[in-house]
Amino acid sequence: MSEIADSTELSITSLVLDRAYNPFVAMDRDGKISYWNAQAEVVFGWTKEEAIGSQLADMIIPARFREAHLEGMRRFAKTGAGKIINKTIEISAVNRDGEEFPVELAVFIIDPNSKFAFGAFIQVISQRKTAERWQAAQLAITRALFKAKDIGEVADEVISAFCTTAGWDVGALYLRDGDDRLEFMHGWSVESAQLSDFLEATRKIEFKLGMGLPGRVWAMGEPVMIYDLSQEDFPRSLQASATDLSSYFAFPLIGDEETVGVIEFFSRKPIQVESNLVQLFKTTGNQIAQFVSRRKVENELALAERHMRSVLDNMSEGVALIDQNLQTVIMNPSGQRVFGKCFNDRNQSETCGLFDVDMVTPLPREEMPQVRALRGEQVNGQECFARSQNIPEGTFISCNALPVYDEDGTVIAAIVVSRDITQRKQIENELRRTRDEALSATKLKSEFVANISHEIRTPLSGLMGMAELLTFQALDQESSEISTYILSAAKSLLQVVNDLLDFSKIEAGHLELNPTQFEMRQLIKDVIQSSEAVSAKKGLTLRHELSEQASAMFFADDLRIKQVLLNLMSNAIKFTETGTVTLKGNVASKSQDGTTIRFEVSDTGIGIEPEMQGKLFEPFVQADGSMTRKFGGTGLGLSICKRLVELMGGEIGLESIRGTGSTFWFTIPLGVGFNSTD
User: Fold this and answer.
1) Domain annotation for the chain: domains and CATH numbers
2) Sequence-ordered list of residues with C-beta below 8 angstroms from that of 606, at least 6 positions apart, any chain
């Protein structure tokens, strides 16, 4: 009965082992196979009939490991001990076709003295080992990318990691160059002259979107796997066929939803990429793409920073970035030269820091440009004086400062730009000194002219008096003409002296206005009467027009108004040979404070060239030199008129056409006078 039970138990065990998912093998003490289940037939390719009775070493152990296996069997026969008994180990196995693959082996003792001395469960771990290799490759790529500064540094390592892990023969990396093409960056191949030529041909081809295999991957944005390249038409098909490259796999490098490059592989053997590996390639591609995009941005930023640093370093202006603690974050060489370590109120001393433009008074902290900017102020052109250990004698500077805000609108720093204005200050001081000297000289000149004018007027008045007395004496005709000429010449000379005296008073600032109440109608009448005699001698028609509103009583210096009008009338008569001279007076504007009157003196004389009109109101200027010889005069009259009009708060100008005539005008504001009828 026990034999029947044992036989039944053995049958059940055999039935279970035959249906196991993994191979199971048993052998005797000599290493001959005594049991070979159905899964062992599938994995190793040997039938049960072929396997049982054969040496295990000849059936599943690679040749390079067989001697070690036999040595282990002999050791067990002598000692009853073995290194792998009751352990799980990973080794390489071989199938009937000679293909090696990794397995996990668990050997245990069944009955040392029977044909079932040992048993072994075998698990094929090819997929697990492949996954481990890819994970190791991905980890190596990640580490390489982490350390690299540029994709060029790790391109060979990345491509070779893929190729050696998968057993592929050729790999290439492309990156986008702009928007229209892929640029070959790096290639790798197993050692072969033909494959090196294939890579060289690859390097020379420009792939655009949709062109060639890389361009197709770029356009699709998905991995592409081609099992038989002989069925494909692509630019490198002849070179691929010549090198026996038969299969293809490539995946895009996608970062931020944009393809930045492509990695492709060629193999002489069929390429098989499982779905889980496709996802791994996508993940790795995204990782590489992010690295490329990040490095591109970093390189652009680094380039921009170098450019900015170059600009800052070569600026003549000092530039500084100051934080809230008044610490200098950035300062270019020009700023360091001027400020040194003194751009901080804590370092302020008599020989170091910022001072007022008097070069002595320390600039208060709250008035420093950087402090003002940190308060949120925008500082423009603040002038101050800086001393530092670099320039002990100091520098005049002009500062602009701006606050720097964070995203919440809080001031976090200040940018200060300073410009050396020492030379400008020196020039300004020199100009100021020269101006003061010139003003002093002008004042002395004006005082001299005023004094000499007074000295000339005294004897001239006596001369005029004596000449006028002579005209009343009973003289012969020749003596009478001489006395009349002397009186006329003396009056002309007196007019010149008066002009010089007025001009010198104006230049020296000593001319004062004496406003009184006057009637405009009477003032115009006096001017016309004073001009009638001269105009009558030349046969000119003298006209005047005064509006009703302009005929009222006003409050102003009527003598100076009359002086201006007489001067303009005199010039008009002097430069008009035939025709008319007209004096007009009208109200230009009126308010509660007073009335502005516009006077015009028009003539039909010679007119004035346009290029000379702007110069006529300058001292000692006439339209041309011949006028002085023909008409006389000092050229001071219009200059005095301009000064007097401006002194009275008005303005003066002219309109003239050469050969047609001229109109000189001026406007002056007049105070309201009391009407004589009130």
Assistant:
1) 2-124 (3.30.450.20), 130-299 (3.30.450.40), 315-420 (3.30.450.20), 427-505 (1.10.287.130), 512-672 (3.30.565.10)
2) 575, 576, 577, 658, 659
